[in-house]
Amino acid sequence: MKIDNATVAVLKNFAKINPSILVKEGNVLKTVSPSKTIMAKATVSTKFSRQFAIYNLDRFISTISLFNEPELNFNDNSVSITDGNRNTNYFYADESIIDQKISDKNINLPSTDVKFTLTEANMKDVERALGVLGLPEIVVSGENGKILLQAADTKNPSSDVYSIEIGKTDKNFKAIFKSENIRIIPGDYEVSVCSQGISHFVGKQAEYWIAVEQKSTFN
């Protein structure tokens, strides 16, 4: 079988969330961060013939990149990779050492207290501001009828704040995310936020459940 580029892109993104992965039979990939603050799910076009575990996902992806149009055959203990001229056997990890206990059921938010559209352009803009200003958090706030996407440091009231207006609202709220938790594939997302500390990002390639910081406020 072959792994298409879109599936590889998902795997590269999931490697940023957790360096290891347990791939189950079929075409649904899931991962969860070691801190349990991020869970991700993607339905891909590649259909895997068996369940297997990879300890170092970046290394596995890099191994595949060594081949031109690689063909993968998943055996009992390893996957053989070949392009006709070159080949290797990449051995699976012991599944017991992969900490990825993820329910097969979807996570349903207890409530949706905030909803907004996050565009790829706005996300890139705020990411640039995080780097330039040295700020640690992404904040989505509702104030004066506007929804603002911000780069901020809520622990320091005198720090700089960079804001982009991304919508309208009749609510007052402040949903705070650690910037390192927003590890999403570039694209546009419909985002729902629950005041009980969880959010749901839904995009074309994948969906993510991301923790909201306890100091967030919803009125």
Structural features:
219 residues; alpha+beta; five-stranded antiparallel β-sheet
Describe the 3D structure:
The protein is α+β, with helices and mostly antiparallel strands. Helix content is 16%, strand content 40%. It is built from three helices and 16 strands. The chain has helices at residues 5-17, 57-64, 120-133; strands at residues 21-23, 26-32, 38-48, 52-54, 71-74, 78-82, 87-91, 114-118, 137-143, 146-152, 162-168, 173-178, 189-194, 198-202, 207-211, 217-218. The strands form four sheets. It has a six-stranded antiparallel beta sheet with strand order 2-3-15-14-13-8. A five-stranded antiparallel beta sheet has the order 11-10-9-12-16. A three-stranded antiparallel beta sheet has the order 5-6-7, covered by helices on one side. The mean pLDDT is 94.
What amount of the residues lies in strands? 35-45%
How many E-type strands?
16
Largest sheet: 6 strands, antiparallel
Which descriptor suits the 3D outline?
elongated
**Spatial arrangement of strands, main beta sheet:** 2-3-15-14-13-8
Mean pLDDT over all positions: 94
Please state the structural category.
alpha+beta
What value does the Rg take, in angstroms?
Answer: 20 Å
Low-confidence stretches: none
Number of helical elements: 3
